[in-house]
Design brief:
alpha/beta, Pyruvate-ferredoxin Oxidoreductase, domain 3, 7 strands
């Protein structure tokens, strides 16, 4: 069976729905440009979407066709992305992660500070942080595209761009060059790529593109 890399994105309902969706679509579209097979979708388990309630978006990437098309959760994520840092408090964001996974958090706090809120951090292969809000200057782009609406802001105009850039730098699953063709805020994506901080703990399930 083909190896499927599972990426789970934690975000806040309604107010950050577009940002979460943009992160998933940016990652998925960048992987497609490299000829990968991709699935990207909302988590029906979390719906209906409510203001500020934690919700998840999912991406799957594989070198071969992904056969399980009707499974709407990532049971064993290789990468977890947290788009709003307070989500780590009191929620098992690493649920199902096998030993050696990667955690990426949008925060201006230090890695050591964030680790104190993650009780099962011992499963991590590495943790990365990027100040996506500081880079983009905004937290919520708008509510366009939600519930079938037309997305007028474009993909990756806010925090999604630097978070996707950070993902490209530390995971090796997608490339910065592909993201530059996808996201609206290319400069923000490149800053996320260059400014992400990474701390490794052990051999990872993810092949890091960065040895720093």
């Amino acid at each position: 069976m083909a190896k499927i890399n599972e990426i789970t994105i934690w975000t806040r309902g309604v107010t950050m729905d577009k940002e979460g969706r943009d992160i998933a679509n940016a990652i998925g579209n960048a992987a497609k440009m490299d000829g990968k097979f991709v699935q990207a979708f909302d988590n029906y388990e979390d719906l209906p979407d409510r203001v500020l309630v934690t919700t998840r978006k999912y991406v799957r990437i594989s070198d071969e066709e992904i056969e399980h098309k009707y499974v709407y959760t990532n049971d064993h994520p290789d990468v977890v992305i947290v788009a709003e840092p307070t989500i780590v408090k009191g929620i098992n964001i690493l649920r199902g992660m096998m030993e050696g996974g990667l955690l990426i958090i949008n925060t201006n706090r230090t890695i050591d500070y964030m680790l104190q809120f993650i009780p099962n951090a011992d499963v991590l292969g590495a943790i990365a942080t990027v100040d996506a809000e500081g880079i983009s200057g905004i937290k919520t782009v708008d509510f366009s595209g939600s519930e079938g609406g037309v997305d007028v802001a474009g993909l990756g105009a806010g925090i999604a761009a630097p978070i996707a850039g950070a993902m490209a730098r530390v995971s090796g699953m997608i490339s910065k060059d592909n993201l530059a063709k996808i996201v609206e805020d290319v400069a923000g994506m490149e800053k996320g790529y260059n400014e992400v901080k990474l701390q490794k703990f052990r051999k990872s399930r993810v092949e890091y593109s960065w040895g720093g």
